[in-house]
């Protein structure tokens, strides 16, 4: 039975590696410009749906130059320096339900990703009922050196008494 499970695990791993080997070149291939998002560098906008006036986090990876320029019609231009992410505040007058392209430019190469403006009313924060404000107990008061010394003396005394009792039993047994 053991050889079957090892063989099964090996077969599963082989299928996965083969699938990755077939899919990877297709994902990295240049299609001649028909797909604007196929780039030699990676980029992200998080979240992909945001309310007007909200913020998004912009990120870029594997760009050969230290600065990536990011632009969109709904926020001010942003520069990402040396792979660090940055935030952008969406204009408060952005049209709810509209989708805008965010453009990332790395060394003349451009890639785009969509950003959607959330629809509906902005939720009003509600006050949730909470439990009572109880303290955190006596543990927050810190330690008192006198109490620590007394506790240490009690522990040392208990250990010493136990040692003496064990020693007396050995003497009584002999």
What descriptive keywords fit this protein?
174 residues, alpha+beta, Immunoglobulin-like, 5-stranded mixed β-sheet, 2 helices, 32% helix, 28% strand, elongated
Shape: elongated
Mean pLDDT across all residues, rounded?
75
Structural class: alpha+beta
Query: Mind telling me the C-alpha Rg?
Result: 33 Å
Side by side, the strands of the main sheet go: 2-8-7-4-5
Question: Mind describing the biggest β-sheet?
Answer: 5 strands, mixed
Overall number of strands: 8
Low-confidence stretches: 1-35
The CATH first-level class of one domain comes to Mainly Beta
Tell me the CATH superfamily of one domain: Macroglobulin (MG2) domain
Kindly state the percentage of residues in helix. Answer: 25-40%
The share of residues in extended strands comes to: 25-35%
Distance between the termini: 59 Å
The number of helical segments is 2
Task: Please render the helix and strand layout as text.
Elements: H1 2-28, E1 42-46, E2 49-50, E3 55-61, E4 67-72, E5 75-81, E6 86-89, E7 99-106, E8 109-117, H2 145-173
Parallel strand pairs: 2-8
Antiparallel strand pairs: 1-3, 3-6, 4-5, 4-7, 7-8
